[in-house]
Design brief:
The structure holds 2 protein chains of 2 kinds. By secondary structure, chain A is α/β, with parallel strands linked by helices. Chain A is built from 25 helices and 16 strands. Chain A is globular, with a radius of gyration of 30 Å. The radius of gyration of chain B is 14 Å and the shape is globular. Classes of the chains: A alpha/beta, B mainly beta.
Chain lengths: ~600, ~70
């Protein structure tokens, strides 16, 4: 300590520097007491942290894993607490926004205690227990994380916020992790000797540990980890490099899930330049024609109707707004996670007509089919399905047949194949001489499928192979197919966005299920809308152009205000490019290669 | 402040469009409702068993609240 600083301290804190030398002994005693008290508090905190960890280790790891999943999916953390716990909330948020270790990714987080005007306005006008609920109600979106700190476990405003968060949880079954810190408060209750302050510090430490566990990636997922192991992927990359030597290869991944995985994991960057992945039509949101959304909106606006839909369909533009707009105008449009949720809505609202907006490929159609059977067996009269299920095989055929396509092979849709098996894909090698390898959705799955395709191209003959044998049986899921054919039948034709009308490419309900068919029960206008001129979703879906080559990509058309459906779903090729920041990279690449961007 | 241009109900990726299916283990079965409690990562979800022949201890692939396939034991 320098002389000048010592003087400054003496000036500012004279009571720490008694002028009377006579009290020197007392100072020594005071310092000793302070030292002992500090050490006691420290060991108390350490002991409680250990106790907390011992008792709640599983819960903390579960909470951290759940939070990690949410963060990975784009969640925002919303934190609250009172007094010292408010500083814990701030601290947790700071850890997210400004991670304490270099290289850690910053995560979106908001402290609800930081809004002085809002907090005081709400507590003054509405009541103390609503201090955080108003903000939470306005800010929290399904899938977000609410983090509440309360040392007693009974702070009314924090408890109210947590309860609001629980009510707003996505309509899925129970998840653990939410009540962790309220239960942690039980440590104190069970041990009245320990100080509340110590617990406050421990809860703060608890949050720190959760954040830490998240960083460590404390989650071990069966069937997943081994397929993300970097060493194995590097080996596959080298094998692809070796096999593809000198050969220009253009492969299409049919499934939107593959498109998403390819961008999420940066797989294109692991491939040699001349091995190109083209994104196929396998995103149901992307292929649904605009007119069907107009039809859906007409049904949703029918008085008395509850229109149940998967989230993605909410934002798909029709010729006049989206379902989200219809909802804002007063239509009763609800998100569902499973068709069974729509069935529950029908059961709970007997006076209303519940219509489920069914979309999806063969992976999804059996779930709708099973729901129809449940509705019939229960005798539910207020439930119907607006069926838009499509089948992948005719779409693949239409793509291969469309002019200008020069593909060398296909990465086959793993979960569609789980249902339909391998034989429906046989026409691809048989009639077109191209390999198709059914693949899983982890990076190593996709890389391995590419290796298998390249081996076929080198050694021939082309065949259907199953990389995803841990899930896909050659014969598919017989029971699912039976239930599907019991309730649904092929439509003579169906319009696909960008691909036009394709015969026998979609499913409608069988006449026996007319009572559950929204197209029979409601006057559906059958609107036909030509796709917006500026939008080139069709060319993107066929792999003729890359998303960034579309005139409106990233300017007029963004995920916030999509013009075309490829920009709506994260599985859409345009949204995948946009969300994973590939645009500028691709442009640079194109500039180097002299391709017009 | 929250800019998330993704699906509103699912984990930022649409389970329908992405054909997303997740593997988990059956920890309880309710034969009346034909549903099972399945552990998926850190959470437990109720899953309908209409499409598969699976029981306690089996690993299943879950898509939109339905088990769509039973996985072979390793």
């Amino acid at each position: 300590m320098t002389e000048s600083r010592r003087d400054f301290g003496r000036e500012l804190y004279p009571f720490l520097h008694p002028t009377s030398v006579a009290v020197g002994g007392e100072v020594a005693a005071l310092l000793l007491a302070v030292r002992q008290s500090t050490l006691a508090k420290c060991s108390e905190v350490v002991a409680m942290r250990n106790a907390l960890l011992g008792e709640f280790e599983d819960e903390m790891i579960a909470a951290a894993s759940a939070m990690a999943e949410r963060f990975a999916a784009g969640a925002t953390l919303l934190a609250c607490g009172n007094g010292g716990s408010a500083t814990d909330a701030d601290d947790a948020v700071a850890d997210c926004l400004a991670p304490p270790v270099a290289g850690w990714r910053a995560l979106p987080a908001v402290s609800l205690v930081a809004e002085g005007a809002t907090v005081t306005a709400v507590t003054n006008d509405v009541g103390f227990e609503h201090a955080f609920t108003r903000q939470l109600a306005a800010l929290a979106r399904p899938g977000d994380i609410a983090l509440g700190f309360t040392t007693s476990g009974s702070s009314a405003n924090v408890v109210a916020a947590m309860e609001l968060a629980r009510r707003r949880r996505r309509p899925r079954a129970s998840r653990r992790g939410g009540p962790l810190f309220r239960r942690a408060a039980g440590v104190r209750a069970a041990d009245p000797g320990s100080a509340r302050h110590a617990l406050a510090r421990v809860t703060g430490a608890g949050a720190g540990s959760v954040v830490h566990a998240r960083r460590r990636g404390g989650m071990s997922m069966r069937f997943v980890d081994e397929y993300r192991e970097p060493g194995g992927i590097a080996k596959l990359g080298a094998e692809i490099e070796r096999l593809a030597q000198g050969r220009r290869v253009k492969l299409m991944e049919v499934c939107g899930g593959h498109t998403h995985a390819i961008y999420k994991h940066g797989i294109q960057d692991l491939l040699p330049e001349h091995v190109e992945l083209v994104h196929g039509p396998g995103c149901p949101v992307c292929v649904i024609p605009m007119g069907r959304i107009d039809d859906a909106m007409a049904i949703a606006r029918t008085p008395g109707v509850i229109f149940a839909t998967y989230g993605d369909m909410m934002r798909v533009p029709s010729s006049s707004g989206s379902l989200l707009d219809a909802k804002a105008e007063g239509a009763d449009v609800r998100f569902v996670y499973s068709p069974l949720d729509a069935l529950t809505l029908a059961r709970n609202n007997p006076a209303r007509d519940v219509v489920f907006f069914a979309v999806g490929f063969e992976t999804t159609a059996p779930s709708t089919a099973a729901t129809l059977l449940r509705a019939r067996d229960e005798g539910l009269e207020n439930f119907s399905v607006f069926c838009n299920h499509v089948t992948i095989i005719p779409a693949i055929k239409a793509i291969i047949d469309s002019p200008g396509m020069a593909l060398d092979g296909f990465v086959g849709p793993g979960h569609v194949a789980t249902i339909i098996g391998l034989s429906p894909f046989e026409f691809i090698p048989r009639s077109y001489g191209m390999p198709l390898v059914v693949a899983g959705f982890e990076p190593a799955d996709i890389m391995q499928a590419i290796v298998m395709i390249l081996r076929q191209l080198e050694h021939g003959p082309a065949a259907v192979e199953n990389q995803y044998a841990r899930v896909v049986r050659p014969e598919g899921n017989r029971r699912a197919l039976e239930i599907m054919t019991e309730t649904m039948m092929l439509r003579p034709f169906f319009e696909w966005r960008g691909l036009g009308f394709i015969s026998q490419s979609a499913l409608g309900l069988r006449p026996e299920f007319a009572a559950f068919d929204a197209e029979v029960r409601f006057p559906v206008p059958n609107v036909r809308v030509t796709d917006p001129k500026a939008c080139q979703c069709g060319e993107v879906l066929k792999g003729v152009i890359k998303p960034w080559q579309c005139k409106v990509f990233g300017s007029a058309c963004t995920p916030e205000t999509p013009i075309g459906s490829c920009m709506v779903s994260p599985e859409g090729a345009c949204a995948a490019y946009y969300n994973y920041g590939r645009y500028s990279l691709m442009r640079q690449g194109a500039a180097v290669a002299g391709v017009p961007a | 402040m929250i800019t998330r241009a993704t699906c509103d109900t699912n984990d930022g990726s649409c389970h329908v469009c992405g054909d997303v299916a997740v593997a988990g283990r059956i920890v309880a079965v309710d034969s009346v409702s034909r549903t099972a409690l399945v552990t998926l990562g850190a959470e437990q979800v109720t899953v309908a068993l209409d499409l598969v022949d699976a029981g306690l201890g089996d690993d299943v692939l879950v898509h939109l609240g339905f088990a769509i396939e039973r996985l072979e034991r390793a």
